[in-house]
Amino acid sequence: MADTILLERRGVPSAAICTDALRASADAMAAIQGAPGYRYAVVPHPVSSLDADGLRSHARLAAPQVLEILRGPGGGAGPGD
Questions:
Q1: 77 domain residue, yes or no
Q2: What is the tens place of the pLDDT at every residue in 61-71?
Q3: pTM confidence score
Q4: CA distance 9 to 4
């Protein structure tokens, strides 16, 4: 989470992906980084034990969320859009 926020601050469009079990930690890290309410994609937990098909399934869930985050509220692809 911190890396994604720092990349965005440097002008690099970024999107974090987090599992549902780690949302509280992701929200806390965003707040610590001065970005409360920071948006990120969420997939089911766990990820590390998934096989290739499971990873593809998670990627299909994450992809539209990531695109929405990168496009931003105005439909652009930059920070603050």
A1: no
A2: 999 999 999 99
A3: 0.84
A4: 9
Q: Are strands 41-43 and 17-19 parallel, antiparallel or unpaired?
A: parallel
Residues of the chain with pLDDT under 50: 76-81
- Cα distance between residue 42 and residue 64, in whole Å: 11
* Tokens 């965005």 sit on residue: 8
* Separation in Å, CA 40 to CA 22, 26, 51, 52, 53: 11, 9, 23, 23, 23
Number of domains in the chain: 1
Helix (H, G, I), strand (E, B) or coil at 41: strand
Cα-only R_g, the chain: 13
9: domain range?
A: 2-71
Residues 44, 19: contact at Cβ < 8 Å?
yes
Q: What does the block give as tokens for 31?
A: 């707040």
Confidence (pLDDT) at 41: 98
Cα 48 from Cα 62, distance rounded (Å): 15
